[in-house]
Amino acid sequence: MKVSAMSESEFQSRRTFLKRSTQLAISGTALPFALNLAAMGEAAAFNSTPGDYKALVCVFMFGGNDYANTVVPLDTSSYDLYSTIRGGTSGIALAKSSLLPLNPTTAPVDLQSNTRQFGLHPSMTGLAGLFNAGKAAVLLNVGPLVKPLTRVQYNGSNTLYPRPPQLFSHNDQQSVWQSSSPEGATTGWGGKASDLVLGVPLNSGVSTFSSMSVSGNAVFVSGNSAVQYQVSAGRSNGAGGGAIKIKPATDATVYGSSAVATAINNMLRETRTHKIEYEYNRVTTRALDAQTSIANALALTSETAPFTTVTFGTDNFSQQLQMVARLIKGRSAIGSGLRRQVFFVSLGGFDLHDNLIAQHPGLLSRVSAGLTAFHNAMVEIGDASKVTTFTASDFGRTLASNGDGSDHGWGSHHFIVGGAVNGKAFYGTPPPLSTSDAKDSGGVNYLPANAWHVGQGRLLPTTSVDQYAATLARWFGVDDSEMVNVLPNIANYAPYVSVANPGGFNLALPGGGTLNFPRYLGFV
Fold this sequence. Notes:
The chain is of the alpha/beta class. The chain has helices at residues 8-26, 33-46, 76-85, 125-132, 151-154, 170-179, 189-196, 252-255, 258-268, 275-298, 316-329, 356-380, 465-476, 483-486; strands at 54-61, 71-73, 100-101, 118-120, 136-143, 211-213, 229-230, 340-347, 387-393, 412-417, 425-428, 463-464, 506-508, 514-516. The strands form 3 sheets. Strands 1, 5, 6, 7, 8, 9, 10, 11 and 12 form a 9-stranded mixed β-sheet that branches. It has a 3-stranded antiparallel β-sheet with strand order 2-4-3. A two-stranded antiparallel sheet has the order 13-14. β13 (506-508) and β14 form a beta hairpin. The longest helix is centred in the last third of the chain and has 25 residues, at 356-380.
């Protein structure tokens, strides 16, 4: 069979990808957002042309970020409810005067037709500036869903109304976001996507560097055959530690002398008939070649001041983002085949059952400063419209205070940053400000303000990670016809119609009206 539009190896890899992703769809439950993005990278690469580069950077906030003190209601009636529920400024509520106003082009409207206003935590000056400049957007109340779900359905049969497994559990929800399975998963969809393209030469950059973690081991980029590519951020803690120094495998200082380096590299490339020796040489050679590619990429930037107009912080999170920025800037050293990349960076410490007011500001300050510096670095190198950064977390937290913090929740608010972002806007649906479980006189339906949390202000998502992921996937280059192969549960959202949900993806709201679950959200 002759293939003209793509090489034979690309065609075979694409065919294998589609076949395998269909098999993966059969076992899909709650979709892993971060993992599917890596799979999207492979699908999108098939649809791209040389020179058409795009990257997605996943910023994972481990521990479950407190949504209510990150994106805070600012209109008077909403703020008053927020402050009352959180115990005022003597509890865990932030002072209204301290908030950084967000000024969207169009004000968001909640399910009760109330116009809402929001502000950011006072530590997030950089992100507030990016939002108001049109370079960032906020996605409200997003979280894992198998399909659209009301609170009444959530309380009903899990068979009829499936929900993500092991809700409210740190390890399980981190795993669900990264691998579609509870704790114990050893492979993620990013790694499985790499499994599918092992026919493509690994040193081409198409496979080896399509999914990269700058935050240690991440199941999201682990496969059955493929091994995730990890790069150190270069600093062990916020105290410093110096810039990372990665040298080519042929560098004399790696082995002590040029002669030794040459001899070892030649030996590893000798043909071996013994299977164990062959595999050892193959894996080791691949690692050394990859090291050389990364070293060459980083050599295109200064170790101490890689950007002219931007200075990253010395904390580990900022250094992770600086490393990603350097790798993107130096990608030409890896090869023209590198058209799509997904990066994973993270920051921990968000499990603030206690000391929320004391510890949350520092965490949010690092997130804001790091994302702002990273975006500005992309502007400097002319790649701002090619790189989109997004946040994710285990889950949101309770709106109710436990006294000194908040407890595990579900839905949360997240940020999308980049030159391609339709910014200065809120997407999704503003959540209610309620911890009440009160129902109407019939005792079946919750009162409208209580219908979109599942107790103590734990938000029931009104936007799914599938919608979040599909929107980014479409920008990334995944064809509409392939979307269901990459995101199997997207079949539960418009424009798909299922037998179980023949009316589509609109949920009836208490008091009348509907909540729509479209496939794409429009933030890019």
